[in-house]
Amino acid sequence: MALIGTFTSTADGFTGSIKTLLLEAELTLSSLTRPVSDNPPDFLITVGKGREGLLVGAARKRKTENGRDYLSIRIDDPTLEKPICAGLYLADGSTSQYNLYWSRPYKTEDKL
What we know:
By secondary structure, this protein is mainly β. The chain has one domain (2-110). The chain has strands spanning 2-10, 13-19, 24-31, 43-47, 54-63, 69-75, 84-90, 97-102. Strand 1 and strand 2 (13-19) form a beta hairpin. The model has no long low-confidence stretch (mean pLDDT 89).
């Protein structure tokens, strides 16, 4: 897994940045205050001015197989071939710092 971002918890979500070879952006994850569908995400992801910024994705609360909490994140942009799917995990030894990890979903025949 590649570390592609770092975030800090806020009163209503998280703020931080994502950085890859082609993408660098400041993001805000804001808790959803009212449902937008029958199966709403837990957070909306914007770039720019917090809740007022450009909507680029969503995040849902999940648990790993061993019970560790994390956010399953999906970020999309017209310049990307596919959305970025990543996990936001609490950094080891921290109570407010989070790391965003991405890993390429390989098909069995694609693995080296």
